[in-house]
Amino acid sequence: RALAKHYPVPKRRLLEKRSVLRAVDGISFRIGEGEIFGLVGESGCGKSTTGQMLVQLVKQTAGELLYRGFPVGGRTGKELKRLRQDIQIVFQDPYSSLNPKKTIGWTLEEPLVVHGIGDKPERRRLVAETLEQVGLDPGFANRYPHELSGGQKQRVGIAAALILAPKFIVIDEAVSALDVSVQSQILNLLKELQRKRGLTYLFISHDLNVVEYISDRVGVMYLGKMVEIFTVGETGGQPLHPYTRALFSSVPDVAARRERVALQGEVPSPIHPPSGCAFHPRCPLATELCRTEAPELKAVGPGHEVSCHNYEEANVTR
Ligand code: SF4
Ligand code: MG
């Protein structure tokens, strides 16, 4: 609820006014249990920061984070430990998240040791079982990261997130660094694991095809704000926000289904975002009101929220 992350920007001159970078600027959304919620937007829009706040790697400047209806902050002892087990993250770069000097088995066993789960034989059994679940032979436990391909490393990254039997996983650009053929294998693995284990994902990616393929609902971010949330697939409505429409129409695979809207200009700086609706300098539907008043994110249909003064026009012109 109204989640924000602001960073102070160092002054370049003595008398300069202190400014802030609004990485995430007050976003509210809900992810249902067992749901895959995709988060898209151009680089620097605040998707990763949002994911990192959800797993508490980054502390929010403002707003409230609720997990199963209860505030995430202020937990201690057993409750905090439980939360750390329940919520995991898979990073983009499987290379940097693995310790090159340690075997895969060690990497996977360590969180179990930290959380005091099982004795040695039990932990070994869990490691072997988890490796199998991500499609790797249990013998991989004896290997080192440099002996693995990119896809195998990302499978290990997923195994590391799964080992504590979490409920909710943030997946941040997890397939972006992989070859296209490997990407689809990893995506299908993530889908299968989600189904089998009843997991909930926040799936972050700049790749719209990937997000549309895997998600139940998609949130679109622009300059730290959530501009649209919509349901994917036959039951879902078409996106209505001019930014979402421009973003999706630039993707070759889905372009055939949607009218092309060219996205003009560059993303402005999150230190000095435009007044009113931050998208107005690039928006084909901008009016005078857009320059002065920021639109609120509001429900426009079942599972569909849009933040735009003129979204109805977007609907008509389609
Ligand atoms: Fe465009 Fe105005 Fe809608 Fe912003 S509020 S997206 S500028 S039409
Ligand atoms: Mg990122």
> What characteristic shape results from the CA principal axes?
globular
Bound ligands: iron/sulfur cluster, magnesium ion
**Strand element count:** 12
Name the helicity range: 25-40%
The main sheet comes to: 8 strands, mixed
Share of β-strand residues? 15-25%
Helix count from the secondary structure assignment: 11
Radius of gyration from CA coordinates:
21 Å
Span of the ends, CA to CA: 32 Å
Structural class: alpha/beta
Helix-strand pattern, N to C?
Answer: EEEHEEHEHHHEHEHEEHHHEEH
| Residue runs with pLDDT of under 50 for 5 or more positions | none
Pfam families: ABC_tran (PF00005), oligo_HPY (PF08352)
Domain ABC transporter: 1-248
InterPro entries: AAA+_ATPase (IPR003593), ABC_transp_ATP-bind (IPR050319), ABC_transporter-like_ATP-bd (IPR003439), ABC_transporter-like_CS (IPR017871), Oligopep_ABC_C (IPR013563), P-loop_NTPase (IPR027417)
Protein name: Peptide/nickel transport system ATP-binding protein/oligopeptide transport system ATP-binding protein
Account of the protein in words:
The protein has 318 residues and is of the alpha/beta class. The chain has 11 helices and 12 strands. The strands form 3 sheets. The protein has an 8-stranded mixed beta sheet with strand order 6-7-8-3-9-10-12-11, with helices on both faces. Helix 3 crosses helix 4 (120-133). The two termini are 32 Å apart. Bound molecules: iron/sulfur cluster and magnesium ion. Magnesium ion (MG) binds at residues 47-48, 173. Magnesium ion (MG) is lined by residues 47-48, 173.
